[in-house]
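Exercise 7. Given the components listed, write out the predicted structure of the assembled complex. Treat all entries as one system.
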Amino acid sequence: MENQVSRRNFLNRLGVTVGAAAAATAVPATYFAGPRPAHAAIKVKGNIPDKPFKTGHITFLTGPANLLGEPGRKGHLLAAEEINAEGGFLGKRKIETIVADEAAGTDANVKELRRMKLSEKIDLFTGVISSGNTPALGPVAEELGVLTMFNDGCTDFLFDKAVPKPKYVFRVTNIQSADGVTSAVGAAKAWPQAKKVGSIQPDYSYGRNVHEHFMLAFQKLVPGAASVSEAWPKLGTTDFTPHITKLLSDKPDALICGLWGGDYVAFYKQALRYGLFDKMKVATTLAFGGQPHAIGKDHPEGVLAGAHANYFFTHPAKGRWPINDSFVERYYKRWNEYPSFESDGAYVSLYLLKAAIEKANLLVGGWPEDDVIISLLEGMGMDTPAGYLYIRPDNHQGYKDTVIGMTKNDPKYDFPIWDPKSIITIPIRDITAPPNWPKPGTSHNESTAAANWLKTTWLT
Amino acid sequence: MDILIIQILNSIFYACILFLIAAGLSLIYGVMRIINLAHGSLYALGAYVTAWAIGTFAAGAPLWVSFLLLPAGAVVVAAVGAAIEPTLLRPLYNRPEEYQLLITFALLLILEDAMHFLFGGTPLTAGAVIDSMGTMPIMNLRYPVYNLLVIAIGIAAAVFLWAFIYRTKFGVILRATSQNMRMASALGLNVKRVYVQAFALGCFMAGLGGAVVVPAQAAVLGMGIEALILAFVVVVIGGLGSLEGALIGALIVSFVRTAGIQFFPEIELAVLYLIAAVVLLVRPTGLSGRA
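Answer.
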């Protein structure tokens, strides 16, 4: 019967929830991403040394990618300050963070990670934004045996190929292939008539990944859809006018745009003046990826605004998911701005670790060895500002349901937010390969396990 | 047809910006033999200062205030240049070139961080300026009128710079100093002053580039690095130290880049470096460079 499912039914069967997600219960659990309520103090077993817990955080401090790096660093620091206010991990070990600039380049990042481990003796390595960097840093972290929570750099390649059997390396934000697929589902629902697709992507692994997975999913959902125009500006481009003119000349019905950070801001400002938004529907993966206030009120409404398939602070809406309400409130109070998905990811990383350390302490007493912490992080689930997050034991990757929505101006904010009526939530299991699906280079040679899964299981 | 016209306008627009950056880079090298690695960051500083000035002082004010503030970036960057030359560069003229490269690279890093510190991490814009001039129809498409103003400023700057160097007394002094600094000094010219003026003029050009580009794009962190790399491609093709070279190089880079994007989007990254490589093989001093 499966192959008789029509495309419309398939879209419906994806279980896409339109509008705000159902209200959740607001019982403060012992383990969730946020400060512990006063009545829920933990018991610590054994003696804990009060040695500081040293953390190395590499993220973009400079360049156009700082728009993503800055909120990541702020999310990390907020969590560290909150945990330190409770006395640190297990009430004793205060978090100390050393920060380094990811813009120094991949080689320099690898050297810095080695330096952080060997001469600063870090207990934890976190951060990292670029998909160009995690595949280089992951193997080194494994070699050094340093517990690692990557915030982003979410390329499928990391756990498909670079570190296929991770021990020390974990990653919190959603897997990258889900990003292109989420935008494809959003675009197919909004514009099922759009057959001619244009694509503008940064010319490196992220842009390639978005283009491939968007097209794979979109062509399954909109029969006859084809790519008619491609533009591949290099990362850090500021003049997009020839790309915009090229896209206009090919007259696509819809455009998929994977530009991010300062690049996206420069792109949309120029596209606006060339009338691009009037000539085609626009879907993005990261329009809402940077600090929310980086996008101006001049941004057109009705653009499918991606948040890397992870999180935008107005969703879940106020009152429906108290963990998010209080996170946004505390983040705003601390930094005088609203959080992004990188803030959520970096913030949640430390709380995941905190929960694992506390559980490990209850099991073994004293300060737990990394091996015990790791075994508890594997398979751990947690309620976070973005919703429920689950860490798969087989690949150490975090998964949560993906979200996307359309831009709309709201008088309450100086920047566009998601139109609440347009927000869709997609169960992650419907758009990504299941655990232990064959990795590239085994029974297939697709670029990612997810691509193979999409090709072989969607609407075949 | 409309696509062709717009792509040609895009290319000329971009060539004007590249020329403003590369001409300053070339002028400074021609006179002082300094490869200024901070030049792209000075361009970015021009963009930030103009966007900041318009955002701070022109909010709510009549539109002519914004236009009046447009050159603010160029003026501030020229002043910064006039301060940098005597303090940071002058002590190094008698040292090997590596010292100058190191100090201008250090300056690049300091300027990038200073801009982040002063203007924040989120992009600054001056969109009201470009929107006030509206767009003009080119058949089925639209083109922002402001971009034509930038093209006019670019052409005017090229003419002005040429006349300044080849038709004024200061130009004669500048060229004399660039050909033989010791002889010029022996003839009683104040070489120190010429150096400050030339460096400030080069910085002014870069700052002007940033100031006029910001309403059309946005001031974003890292924009100076991209500009520096492209400016180097321009001067490698055109010839370091030559004003005509900067013009020819800017036009070639801009038109080839646009053609690449329109017809072979996949090779956009490679095509400019290929041209630079070919020019280096055939004419190592650049198309209009002197050995």
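Discussion: Strands of chain B lie at 135-138, 141-144. Chain B has 13 helices and two strands.
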